[in-house]
Amino acid sequence: MTKKIVLAYSGGLDTSVAIPWLKDKGYDEIIAVCLNVGQPGTDMDFIQKKALEVGASESYAIDAQDEFADKYVAPVIKSNALYEGDYPLVSALSRPLIIDHLVKIAHDHGATAIAHGSTGKGNDQVRFEAAIHALDPDLEIEAPIRDFHWSREEEIDYAKEHNVPVPIGKKSPYSIDCNLWGRANEAGILENPWNQAPDDAWGMSVSPEEAPDEPVFLDLTFEKGLPVAIDGTPMPLATLIKNLNKVAGDNGIGRIDKIENRMVGIKSREVYEAPGAAVIMTAHHELENLTLERDIAHYKPLIEQQITSMIYEAKWITPLFDALMAFVDETQKNVNGVVKMKLYKGNVTAVARKSPNSLYDENLATYTSADSFDQEAAAGFIKLWTLPATVYEQVNHVHSQAKDKVNND
Ligand code: ARG
């Protein structure tokens, strides 16, 4: 029987070298699959052809940008998911999507295995393999890059022997992963956390110092917790994010320089750029402030925290994740409205907001004569509100001077 394997292919040297390597390992047919998830400057035709040139028997290039935005980015927006407070889960999101496609293609072609190009030190291997196990535990897994154990020179020699074109010029010192939700960059000079990230580490944004001296204002319209229009012009989520990446990146917004805790136990230093995400998530959170009832607003972050960890930690395909997302979806029904955003030299702020579902009542909030708030009810409310602590303090005298009096007696 011909042994077939589906390879997550990027077009780069590592996954190209993986093709002859998998053949050496006994696979007869390598089916290369490259997904466009909005990584900029990707020539999908070129990548598709290149896989065939270096020995793949079939090669697919799939435009998955809308699917990525609608099914994978949307939950992150609705749940304000920022890992360890600031990383919008850029790479963590694309892995389950890629595997979803690879497993389908494996089944269509009767392939018995899937190969991915992750190293053995990162989170992505866990995310890829967790998704494969969940979708089809019978599929075998190959991780050529994890298994190579080659120096750069050995890899190049192997590439040359097997007619895999080696990019000329110096290899980028960085390891970059990019999609429409953002860009992750590690390795090289960034490995020393005391080194400031040099200019060439960034790819989606200018530095705040170089950003224009005039602010940019834009109105972001939301429906059920998701952005649907910029300045009143409706557009698909993927397009909207890409437009915001451009304008926010040009204003120096969305840079994150971070030490993070990986699943595999190590701390790593990575620089991220997520300009569009910064604008959307700031706006979304502000619209929630306007439209969520207080108990929901105070409880939801607990759920968000759990969702965020689960996305980072390869638990996308789990019943708990689905159940928590059902909770979040329920909370988003009334998150409709418009938020005016100000973009200025690396900062993004919500400066105005309105909503048909606004719970802000100006007549209740005002200090003018239009006031409809019952101020007289406040005094009784305060008495009852503080009653348990009042009784406790009167019995135990923990804070009051009366305590000393008691002790001195
Ligand atoms: N540390 C991030 C994560 O685990 C990003 C990893 C992306 N990889 C890269 N080569 N920069 O989600």
Automatic annotation (TrEMBL):
ATP binds at A8, Y9, S10, G11, G12, L13, D14, T15, S16, G117. CDD domains: ASS. GO terms for cellular component: cytoplasm. NCBIfam families: argG (TIGR00032), PRK00509.1 (NF001770). Pathway: Amino-acid biosynthesis; L-arginine biosynthesis; L-arginine from L-ornithine and carbamoyl phosphate: step 2/3. Its main location: cytoplasm. Belongs to the argininosuccinate synthase family. Type 1 subfamily. Gene3D superfamilies: Argininosuccinate synthetase, chain A, domain 2, HUPs, Single helix bin. Residues 174-392 form the Arginosuccinate synthase C-terminal domain. PROSITE patterns: ARGININOSUCCIN_SYN_1, ARGININOSUCCIN_SYN_2. It catalyses: L-citrulline + L-aspartate + ATP = 2-(N(omega)-L-arginino)succinate + AMP + diphosphate + H(+). L-aspartate binds at T119, N123, D124. Homotetramer. It holds the Pfam family Arginosuc_synth. Its EC number is 6.3.4.5. This is Argininosuccinate synthase. It comes from Lacticaseibacillus manihotivorans DSM 13343 = JCM 12514. The gene is argG. GO terms for biological process: argininosuccinate metabolic process; L-arginine biosynthetic process; urea cycle. Keywords: Amino-acid biosynthesis, Arginine biosynthesis, ATP-binding, Cytoplasm, Ligase, Nucleotide-binding. Residues 4-165 form the Arginosuccinate synthase-like N-terminal domain.
